[in-house]
Amino acid sequence: MKHKDGKPYPPNKNSKKIQVTLIVVVLCGFSFYLGGIFCSEKETYATNEVNREDETPIGNSAGSLQTRGNSFTECSADYQDYTPCTDPRRWKKYGLHRLTFMERHCPPNFERKECLVPPPDGYKVPIRWPKSKNECWYRNVPYDWINKQKSNQHWLVKEGEKFIFPGGGTMFPNGVGKYVDLMEDLIPQMKDGTVRTAIDTGCGVASWGGDLLDRGILTVSLAPRDNHEAQVQFALERGIPAVLGIISTQRLPFPSNSFDMAHCSRCLIPWTEFGGVYLLEVHRILRPGGFWVLSGPPVNYENRWRGWNTTIEEQRSDYEKLQDLLTSMCFKLFNKKDDIAVWQKLTDNSCYKKLDNADNYPPKCDDGTEPDSAWYTPLRPCVVVPPATRKVKLNALAKWPERLHVAPERVSDIRGGSEGAFKHDDSKWKVRAKHYKKLLPAIGTEKVRNVMDMNTLYGGFAAALVEDPLWVMNVVSSYAANTLPVVYDRGLIGMFHDWCEAFSTYPRTYDLLHVDNLFTAESHRCEMKYVMLEMDRILRPNGYAIIRESSYFIDVVAPMAKGMRWSCREEDTEYSGQNEKILICQKKLWYSKESSL
């Protein structure tokens, strides 16, 4: 640099030192940046070993992981029943119309919790199946509302440290067994393997679904999150399939033409209101030839109206409206006795031709409405017409249990799907399940009842375990190929879900979570730490996780699991390949620092 007269400034002795210092600082910073890029996420979530031993250790091996680092913090005790996407704390943000506040409303990313949900004060390892069907620990689901408000209906009774489930309900206070016996008389297909899958809307404590398990029928019990009743939590604590959900403004997360039977026992759903959209949604998910069962108002109004706080004229009008609506969407009255009425969805598609007339209601859905689109898809007041082919009709399917291993026709609707691909998948999972049982002997015992396959293809894992005393919720990603209809066609249950969000269940509701390359498929969309924290939320203390992934993702996930107080070990796959590994983990039982224990 020069003076304005052209003479240079005298040289600064410190300038070279400053330049060298700046270069060193820049290079160090750049080196640190590159290190951050190439350093695996596993170091961020590495954890110290928890000193407390598991109550039921999964064992040690050369593959045991001993990574050290920081652990996740505990959520406060008032989050013991935290359901992120159906959180009562956030209900006031949403409308009352059609109970939309009870639908899924997940928190934005900046409100997501990054802590471990604690168990309730006094939590115990759940009572094992089949005893759990009839009793559970009070401290595990410490809610008295049903016990106090429904005591005359015998939903449950508190006795000492336990809740006892006598099998009662609003429409069957004298026991669900006799109620289902009458239903079987009205629907003989329930007894010969024709009816295998069912959905119960407004399920109470799932006594109906629990009774059907003994009769070979697998039921998804559905009820919304509430402050007092905790219906779904009771169901899952008993070992009965259930999910949080409500028919409101969005479709249920199930494919079309899937359930063999749907049931409503005084569930108080206003079926004929809002253009009949609630009943139209039942029509969408029920397969042709399937049955819709209704007990309670307005069925048997002639004898019951006095106890319903109404008039006989009002109830007669409600029943006639319901019958007209069902007829318009191609149901027929199949049978009726006492408080139970049964309608059947017709298998003859000629009935739907009347919907071409613009004067008829409800109208036919246009071709732009995807029948199986069911993840945040708005309900529409129109009829989803089933395909005319036989592949979705109830009478076209093999009876249970034969249908489990028969390739459904709908497998050909999937890109790359075929009968051969289905058979190969079925055989593959038989081998894998046998290997899993060697690695985790608890499978097939009373320790494992509620199971989730977090990213299934055709339900092969569930099919391979069908003889064990457990049930499997098969989850298909809302971003993956639509294979869920195949799962239902073979007589299994499942639902759509996006693992970037929380699942529709209470904490501590599953004994075993199974992952098959979920992180490989979804890591570009979802932060893995949130998926792992969600797994921890829904997994019971002393429950297990089988994580099947590439070696890279095993190395990433394992330290996160340690940070959640899981004990894990790495194992080879059934073929001892190097590219894919299995992580066997067990969640430890711990109590909140705020606990009085």
Biggest sheet strand order reads 8-7-6-9-10-12-11
What's the main sheet like?
7 strands, mixed
- Unreliable stretches: 1-57, 59-69
Tell me the span between the first and last alpha carbons: 75 Å
Share of β-strand residues: 15-25%
Mean pLDDT: 87
Proportion of helical residues = 10-25%
Number of strands: 19
Q: Over the alpha carbons, how many angstroms does the gyration radius reach? A: 28 Å
Transmembrane segments: 20-38
Membrane topology: Single-pass type II membrane protein
Protein name: Methyltransferase
GO cellular component, one term: endosome
Structure description:
The structure is a single chain. The protein is of the alpha/beta class and 597 residues long. The chain has 14 helices and 19 strands. The strands form 4 sheets. It has a 7-stranded mixed sheet, sandwiched between helices. Strands 15-14-13-16-17-19-18 form a 7-stranded mixed sheet. Mean pLDDT is 87; it is low at 1-57 and 59-69. Pfam families: Methyltransf_29 (PF03141).
